[in-house]
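Section handout, structural biology tutorial.
Before the tutorial, make sure you can parse a SMILES string by hand: atoms, branches in parentheses, ring closures as digits. In the record below the ligand is pyridoxal-5'-phosphate, and the chain has 442 residues. In the tutorial you will relate the predicted structure tokens back to the input. Do not try to memorize them.
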Amino acid sequence: MNEISPPRPNNLDAFWMPYTNNRGYKTTPRMLARGEGMYYYTTDGQEIIDGTAGLWCVNAGHGRREITEAIQKQAAIMDFAPTFNMGHPIAFQAAAMVAEHTPAGLDRIFFTNSGSESADTALKIALAYQRARGQAQRVRLVGRERGYHGVGFGGISVGGIGPNRKQFGAMLPYVDHLPHTHLPEQNAFTRGQPAHGANLADHLDNLVALHGDTIAAVIVEPMAGSTGALIPPVGYLQRLRDLCDKHGILLIFDEVITGFGRLGTFFGSERVGVTPDLLTMAKGLTNAAVPMGAVAVHDKIFRTIVDNAPEGIELFHGYTYSGHPLAAAAAVASVDVHVKEDLAGRARAMEPYFEEAAHSLKGLPNVVDIRNYGLVAAVEMQGRAGKPTDRGMRVFHRCFDAGVLTRSTGDTIALSPPLIVEKHHVDRIFETLGEAIRAEAA
Ligand SMILES: Cc1ncc(COP(=O)(O)O)c(C=O)c1O
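Predicted structure of the complex:
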């Protein structure tokens, strides 16, 4: 056991764990104590290969010295400074560095502290823009079934995952949803983008027929991650772009997962060849070392809001920690590592091997679909009759106990390793997953 691993705590009661079966977890707690490169180490000293980059976020691998040192240095210089009518250099530096990699035009960066805040911020900016350009009737927001945009009221309202919504009442009014793009009958076991489903974007025409010119924005993930990795059908996002343009609707890409190299390009929009009007990010922005999110906003939107505002504050929105010095320092270092090590290029180079390894699980018991895009793969299993999510959770536990961290969403196992992953890691991840699936079927 590594000497610097913190010990297991004695009291597990006080921490109400997020998105967790608290009662189940606390009977058999799995506890990560340390991370380095492609690995976690538990409080018991077990080595766990990180098949999910934490939660899709530690893209450059764990314990990156450059990022840790940048945070330490900044903490010693200045721990905090407000950014309301005030500034500090590293927040401006971080914004400028991020803007160098966002799609052309999207070079105004609004900092938040998470993906959820980024989604809500993007929705609010979209509404403010429509009002500023004289279209105040555009108050409706459109999301997509099975979409995930975090846990704020805006995010769960446009989000499309039932269990994330049903405990929380009425949510935002004036929200509608596009159909999801998961078509297993036609697209099962597709490698990369599936052929069928572009026409599902046309549903936006139906919503416009229904709601007229009251829609402000459409928000989608270029690749829906949290719902089990739904890859965009060929042509689907372009069609959505065209329809948004036709109807005067803003298109928001939620790139909290697809940003920072995950799809083999710095942002996913480049990979899919479609540029949104606003783009959210978080996770890889700081390599998850300090919480931070951001929204990249097209200059025309920024100008419209700012130029049409009366003298004074132009957008009544912001967080105490927007552009927090430690987060900004981590972002500067993270962007630097992404660029210097060409992590997106590494992901692209590894994609064919990763794809092959994922699809080698085809034919295993209960496996009903395998899909992949960039360094993301999802292995979907037939759920146990009357016990949805049980098989997924059990396979997840088996993998963990065998030393591989996976992510289960429903009965789908998703893999999204750090972009520094090497072939021998890929082999071990999929061999372990295959064994767990077999063992679970036995
Ligand atoms: C696409 C997307 N948007 C938003 C979020 C929410 O991010 P956070 O958990 O940082 O609030 C996530 C988290 O996984 C996400 O995948």
